[in-house]
Every structure is written in structure tokens, then in C-alpha cells.
Amino acid sequence: MISDRQEVQQSQVELTNQQKERRLTLDEVMPSNAQFEAYRQNKSIGLPTKVQQDIIKVAFEEIIGSDDFQTTKSAQKKIHLLNVTVAGSNTADITALANLVFRTTTAGRGAPVARELYRIAMDNGDSDAAFSYANILCKGSGGTARNVAEGMKILSQLASKGHVYAQFSLASMLAREESGYKKAIELYELAGRGGISDAWTEIGRMYRGGIGVEQDNEMAFQYFKKGADAKNAQSIFMMGVYYSSGLATKDGKTNEEKAFKYFMSAASQGLPEAQYNVGYRYFRGIGTEQNYGLAVAYWKMAAAQGFRVAQMNLARMYNDGLGIEQNISLAKRYYKLAAN
């Protein structure tokens, strides 16, 4: 039961969100001419720049400027009229324009306008717009009021129709609560079959940790393998973890050479933990020949992405001149990075 105090607090939060929307200016939500042109050149949207600007202006004035902050019939009508003036234009152009506003404005400030453009496109049958609209509702992007229940309802409808991104997003939300574990795995399965390789990784993690299912490393390994076969960096990394720990085989024997190959493959995709592991194996000569120079190279890759253990190891190597020329200045730099 929600108390009166909770209702007041909720109202205050909603009011704060509305006030944030009121402080928006048209300049804040209007992409630059270069951004409009880039989208047109990439064929992401077919509308002329002037029409795009007019639609955003209508959305801003009619929606953000309205008292209830809801999509108004007049805004829908005006945007529809602007849209149909261009031969061959369709609802997908409104969705693409919402994407442009949402992705190019600073700190998500364009989210309120993008949200309503997504809503209009969704009401006209665009499932991708519905997915984006639902995500904004669930996250409260850019200071917009959150409505998780409504967002999840829309995602559920999309998921039931086979929208793989909705299946994955909904699964990720359900996996946060014990009551949603079973449904989350079902949705991850569907999303994985639909081509989202991250879904295989997530199921693998659930089996690895016994989350919603009985802990089963063999099942976890099989799902990580599915993800690895789909070139998913996290799954490839986990294959390395399983081979290096002996969990990949029934007899519990490790295979450091295979582990190294998997870590190297994941590192080539930019995964910092994999880059660290490759560096560590070069440093120790595990699964490959010892090579301090390559250890430093891979630890630098991981350090550049904020991986603190790599930063600390580099600091020690430069401080002690271990395998590389001593450099106290660089040692201090990496110690400072690791400490922040």
C-alpha cells in the first residue's frame, strides 16, 4: 500500500521532471545542420532538413509547452501534415528523426521531444518506435517521468510479437527479481535465437551463478559456447575462463593454450578484462611464451579503458624496471590513475 507521504513524494518527483522539461529550449533539442545532413547522407531519414526542423519545432512547442506534457491531437495532426507533404515519407521517418534528437542532444536533453515523437510513430504502428518509447519510460531518460509498469507492458506486447530487442530488454529487467528468473531465461532464449548474442552470455551467467536455475557449469559452458560461436566478446572471454579453470572438461583439467586463444580473441574485440588476462599470460608465460613487452602492450590497452589492476601492474613494472626501462614518471602516472 502506498502511503500519503509516498504519494506526495512521488508527485514531487513528477513535478521536478516536468519542471526540467519546462526549462528546455528549442536550441537544446534541435540538432545541428551537419547532424541533419549526416543522417540524410546515411539514408537514415528521407525528409528534407527543413521539414525535420519544422517537426521538431512543432513537437517542442505543442508537447513540451503543453500543461499536461502529453502528446496533443493538434501536435499529431500538425506533424502528420508536415510529414505527408513529402512524397514517399512514412512513419519510419518520424522514428528516425526521434533517434536523431535523442542521440545528438547533450546529456539526453532531447529525450522529452524524442519520447513524444516515438509515441506518435508507435501509435501509427512502428514497433521500433514503440521499443524506444518503452525504454525511455522505463529509464526516465533525460529527466522524463518514469513509468516502468507502462514501459514493461509495451515491451511485453512487442516481445510476444517476436521483437528480439524487446525480448532481451524485458528479460534483463525480469532477471533482477527472483519472481522473473524463469520468464527471463525463456525470453533470453528467444532473443538468442533471434540473433542477439548477449542473450547466450546472460543465460550462461545465470547457470554459472545458479540464478533462477540449479547451478550447472556444464550448462553454463554450453551457453557461453553458443555466444562465442556468435562472436560475442563476453562469451568468448568466459570460454577462456572455463578452459583456464578446468571447468570446460569433465576431468577438471585445464587447457591454458586454448584459454589463451579465447582471451586473445576477446581482447581483439576491445574487452579490457580480456586484454588484462592476455597481458598477465604474457607476463607469466601461461599458455604462451613469456614476453614482457607484449604484457606491457596489452596492459596498456586495458589501462586505457580504466582497468585498475592493469594500471597498478604497469606502475610497478615502470617503478622497478621489470622487463622494461625504468621510468619513475610513468610509474607515478599509472599509480595515480589506479588510485582515482
Automatic annotation (TrEMBL):
Q: Which domain of life is it from?
A: Eukaryota
Which Gene3D superfamilies does its entry note?
Tetratricopeptide repeat domain (1.25.40.10)
- The residue range of the signal peptide is none
- InterPro entries named in the record: Sel1-like, Sel1_AlgK, TPR-like_helical_dom_sf
Q: Which GO terms describe its biological process?
A: ERAD pathway
- Gene Ontology annotations for the cellular component aspect, listed alphabetically: endoplasmic reticulum membrane
Q: Name one Pfam family in it.
A: Sel1
**PANTHER family (UniProt xref):** PTHR11102:SF161, SEL-1-LIKE PROTEIN
Family per similarity comment:
Belongs to the sel-1 family.
Q: What is this protein called?
A: 2314_t:CDS:1
| Source organism | Paraglomus occultum
